[in-house]
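Model the whole thing, not chain by chain.
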Amino acid sequence: MKHTRFFTVFVVILIFASFNLGIYMFLTQRLSNNFSGASQLKMVDVKKFLPHEEDSELARIETDFALEGDLPVLDGAAALVPVYASIIDNVYPKGSVTYEGGTFSDDNYYGENFAKDSKMQYKNTVRGYTAIVDGDTDILFCASPSKEQMLYAKEKGVELEYVPVGLEAFVFFVNKNNPVDSLTAEQIRDIYGGKYRNWKDVGGANRIINPLSRIPGSGSQSAMDAFMGERETGAKSPLAFFGASIGFSFRYYMDGIVGNENVKMLSLNGVYPSEENIRNGTYPIIAEFYAIYRKDNENENIQKLIDWLLSEEGQNLIEKSGYVRIK
Amino acid sequence: MSERVFSKILIITVVICILLTVAHVIYDVYAYQHGSIIYFVAKELW
């Protein structure tokens, strides 16, 4: 009798342990590296891209162009840190960037800290758009704004100038073991629209599709909203957590900055998002990225810097930073 | 061990297991909302 009771308690514990182990295998272990003090992801390791540091992973070119005087404060999206950090590295004087490091906290979402007078800042897209409208940043390097971000500028009575300075592919990715290598744009819209909920519907394995999204206002989510157009995002399967995922991002962020070998980018309409296919325009979703500034900003160096970025030298720098030139 | 003591032990065990499971699920939902989707896809089981 006593043994039976101990066995009953043991079985109860075993059932719960098995259930939790299942959740851990399917879910928890896939999330375990993403916490910080403020529960935010450190999206890019800015320390690798600090201007005027010998071991920085920045693009360097030969140029006689150099800014002096009132230096514009540059900020931007995580994916474009290599671009605007390279600009500072090549044309700003030494000492114009003060990196203070920092750890994750509720006030420091990305765990990165630049001094207030530093000409390089890193606020990423959502906070970066607020900063450019509020006048805390002179030039912001980002993808197209979301409707909310445009509305914020309008409410503040601020007109922004968007100058396209480079090209990038908007890409979809899956786990490298997912047998699907290519989808059509319409199939992807149908997946996110809720029409297709199983990979076998699009020629893949018999697994539930888990269509992933990003935080509202981020560059990639705004690009996804544009890709979906009038199409509403549909509800996903309640068991999608346990399915096989599809996500979206920008090519260089995925391939060059994060560089995770266990994911693969999908061809779209049969065209792979290679640099060559972006340059020749065959990849279907090419997104421009912009240098954005307030029209009422009187800093003369802004126009000088933008003119240089659109010159042969500036476009070479964009290319050497891993992106595709616009000219 | 009396029937009453056994019932208490069983109930306490079940309650503790449920609380731990709920905490686990809450952690996952929170982490899922804030995590890297690239890492999430990379660690997928196939």
